[in-house]
Structures are given as structure tokens and as C-alpha cells.
Design brief:
Arp2/3 complex 21 kDa subunit ARPC3; two-stranded antiparallel sheet; 8 helices
Amino acid sequence: MKTKQRLSTGVLVKAALLTAVSIVLTRFFSVMLPLGGLPALRVGLGSIPLILSGILFGPLVGGMVGALSDVIGYAINPAGGAFFPGFTLTAALYGILSGVLVKNVKIQRSKWNFNYLNALVMIAFAAGVLMLLVLSDSLLLVDGRWQFGDAMALPILIATVVVTLLFVLLPFFSDSKIKKSEGGISFDKITFIVSLNYVFNSVLLNTFWLSVMFGKGFMVFLPGRIVAALATIPIYSWILYVLTRFFKSDID
């Protein structure tokens, strides 16, 4: 009973520390970039502690760290506009999704090369963007020829193709350069966790929240958020890969 209590206290202390780090990185050491003339793209490292909390402590604690970091962070420094609960849900999902993959699915024990699965995620993402362009009439098939019905369709399509190709090929190249080690989580699996989180939470879900919050079309915010993936996914992957080397014993 005492061991469980000490462990619980230790987890809470570490979770509180990760919450504080996320707040500082998000509210004071990030940059808000305009999309469509609105503050719609936060560039920073604030989501890394959220993903790490899920990896180390599971979906419940990871979700709590994400939700609390957003709510408390907004109360301390409401930079970026009015409070919107959708972003709190997204912050929680960073920890929940990472925790499910590591603590429940236990992908770190899998013998699969997750570079292939990561490639499928990115290809599915590209296919989803293409479908969205067609359904929104931004990309039209007229007399057997594809035409752009929206000025934003071409940059969205180019950005999607570039990001998809990069993240289909880059993990294979990076993984071959990294020395394999026992324990922790291999780089291909870290990249999968980051890619899945970023595509679902940032590119899709947060873009939807922004369109609801500002009353603008989804396509207004999508290109910039796709382009941001070019830097965000590899940087997050490398940082988390290094951090998990120090927490091998906490990753079951």
C-alpha cells in the first residue's frame, strides 16, 4: 500500500512538473503566427510535455496534464484570443492518444517497423485532404480535366504533397542513422506517435476549432498548419526520442 502511495505521489509530482513546463513553453516561449489575418498558428514546444506525460503515465494522467495545462495556462496568460474549450480537448487528446499507444497498445514492444505504418498515416492524411478539396468544390473535375475552384486549393495541394513525401521518406532515412538501443521507444515509433498526434490534433481538430471560433472556412487555416508540420514533426520526434532515453524505466 505504501509503495503504491509513493508511486502515486511521484506520478502526481512529475505530472505537475510537466504541466508547468507545458504552460511556460506554450504561454511564454511560443510565437503566434497569423493565418488569414487572424492569430491562428501557435509555433512552439508546448505540446511535447503533453505527449511525454501520456507516454510515461498513461492516457488518464496524460489527459489531465493536457487539460490542466490549457485551462491554467489560459488563466495565467490568455495570449491568442478568447478561451475555447475545443482547444482544451485537443490538449487532453495529446496525452490521451500517446498514453493509449504506449501504455495500452504497448507499441514499444512491437517488432513491426512503424516507418511503414507512419507512411500509411501520412498517405491517408493526403488522401483525406484531397477528398476535402473535392467535397468543398475547391478541386473540380470539368470535362475530364481537374480545375481549381478556390485560390487556396493549389497551395494546399502542394503543401500536402511535400509534407506527405517528406514524412514517408524521412523516417526511413533517420532510423537507419540511429544506433539501436535496448529499452525506451525506438525512433520509428516515436515518429509515429508524433505524426498521429500532429495530424489528428493540430492539423485537423485544431483547424476545425479555429474555423468555428472565428467563423471562417476550414481552408483558410489549413495550408499554414500543413506547412508547419515540415518543422514540427521532425523536431518533436527528435526531442521526444532523446527525452525517452532518460525515462526508460518508466516506459513499460
